[in-house]
Here is the input.
Amino acid sequence: MHTTPVRPSSAPSRWPAPLRLAMAALALLACLLAVPARARACDTPVFRYALERWAPDAYQALFFHRGELTTDQARLIDKLRAMTAQENSPANMQVQAIDLAKTPDPVIESAYAAAGRPAAPCLVLTYPLTRVPVAVAWSGPLDDNSVAALAVSPARKEIAKRIVAGDSIVWVVLESGDVAKDTATHTRLKELLEDLQQAATPESTDGRASATPSRAAGEEAMGDTQDAGPASTPVRFSTLRLSRKDPAEAIFIAMLLRSEPDIDKLTDTMAFPIFGQGRILHAIVGRGINAANVGQSVSLLTGPCSCEIKDQNPGTDMLVAADWRVDRSYIPDAKPELTSLAAAAENAGKNGSTTQPAGEHGGPGTPGEHAAGHPGMGGHGAPGGHGTWAAMGPVVVVLTGLIGGALLITFWIVFRSPSSEA
Here is the structure.
C-alpha cells in the first residue's frame, strides 16, 4: 500500500514563544525611546533654541548697609526691584538689602568677602548662583547712576535688539586701547565671520544664498538694526566694538572681564560671542581670535542643540533688562525664577554640581592665545539629550514596568514547563 511520506516537522524553536514575545516587546520599547529622542534634538540650532527656551539666570544685587535704610536708599532699592518686575523686559536679578549690623547668612558673607569687604554702604553685584563659589561681577556705590546702568546700557540694548531682529551671534569686541591692533583684530574677525556666515547659509535652488542682506556680517555700527526675523536670515553674525574707557559701559565691561576667573588682568583685544537671551559663550583673546577658535565657536552655536539642559552647556548670562520675545507661539511666558542666595548655594552643594565659566587658556606663558574652548564643548551636548529623558521619564517607568512584568511571567512559564524540567 502506498503511503504518503510524512514530512518531518519543523525543528522546534530555540526560544519558547512567550520568551520570543517578550524579546520583541523589548525591541519595540527601544524603538519607541529612540525615535522621540532623535526627533526632539534634531534641527534646531543652539542659538535659536537658547533664544526660545533658555531664560537668563538671575544675578544677585546685594546692598550692604548698617542700621536702618535712609529714605534715599530705600527709594533706590525700590527702583532696582521695580526693574525686576517689568512685565515684558524684566531685569534678570534679585535685589536684597543686607544689614551688616546683624549676622549675615554665610553665603551672603562670602559674597561680601569676595568683593573685598568694601566700606558700607555699598552695592555688590554677583553672577548667577549657577556659578560656585560666589563670584563678584561688579561693586560700587548705590546711587542714581549705578541704578540706571546696572541692567541697562547702550551696548546691551543694542545686543538684545540685534538678536531679537535675527542675529544668530553678536560678537562684542572689547578694545585694548591700541587703535592699530584693535582695528586689525576687528577686521580679521569680520572677514572670518563673513566666510563662516556664507558657509553656514543655505542656498536656494538657483544656487544663490537665501540670507537677507539687511546687514553685512561684521557690521559694528549701533542703532541701525533692521527688523528682520530669524526665518528670513537663518544664520547671521555681527560685531560690536566696545571701548574699555566708555563710562556708560563700565558695569557691562566689568561683567565681561569677570565672566571668567583669569581674563580681567589681560589687556589685549578680546572677542565675546553672545547669543540666546544674552548668554556670553566665552572670551577669545588676542592671537586666539583666529579661524580655528572662531570657527569652533560658530560651529557650536549654529549646530543642532542635542543637549536641552541649559546648565550643561558652556556660557554665562549677562545682566540685562530686555524683551526677548521673538515669536509668542514659541517663547514661554515664564520669567526667570529668582532663588535666594543661600537656598541656591545649598541646592548646588547638594547636587554636587559646579558650573565653571566657559573658556580655557593655552596655559602659562601664552596670555595672548586664550583658546575658544570649554571642557566637552567640541561635541556640544555630548552627554546626550538629557531633556528628552527627563520629559519621557513617566513613559519609561510605565513601559519598563510592563516589560519587566512580562519577562517575569515568561520565565515562570518557561521554567515550570515539562520541557524545562526534562
